[in-house]
Amino acid sequence: MSTTWKFHADAGLTVPLTTRGATIAHGLGPTDAVVYLGSSAAGKTLRAASAPGVAAIAVEVDATGAVGITAAALSLALSVGGLASATPGAALTLPAVLSSGAGGAVAIYVRTAQGALAQALYAGLKLRTVPVVES
Description:
This protein has 135 residues and is mainly beta. Helix content is 0%, strand content 36%. The two termini are 12 Å apart.
């Protein structure tokens, strides 16, 4: 089911993010970015469909369609400091209920690890939530 909740490139929720590309530059090590999950529609809430209001909402890396890179190249955290201990490829747990509006946007910190990847721009990676319901 479609919702008004999307990933954005800005905290104001004005620039939708459709694809998270991973840029690997030789010798630079990991690169960090921030994306925002939210809805600019007024008065909306988001809950996990499995147990609305009880189960946590999770965000995961979707590598379907990605070439030469896997979900394990990315780590997700709720703070830049959390990236150091984030498990590569693991889902990120969010609260059970999220509220709409720019003030309710959730900042998601994304780290791309160079590892054994060649210097290149890798496309096709996306962030997605577990199945959710909006009310």
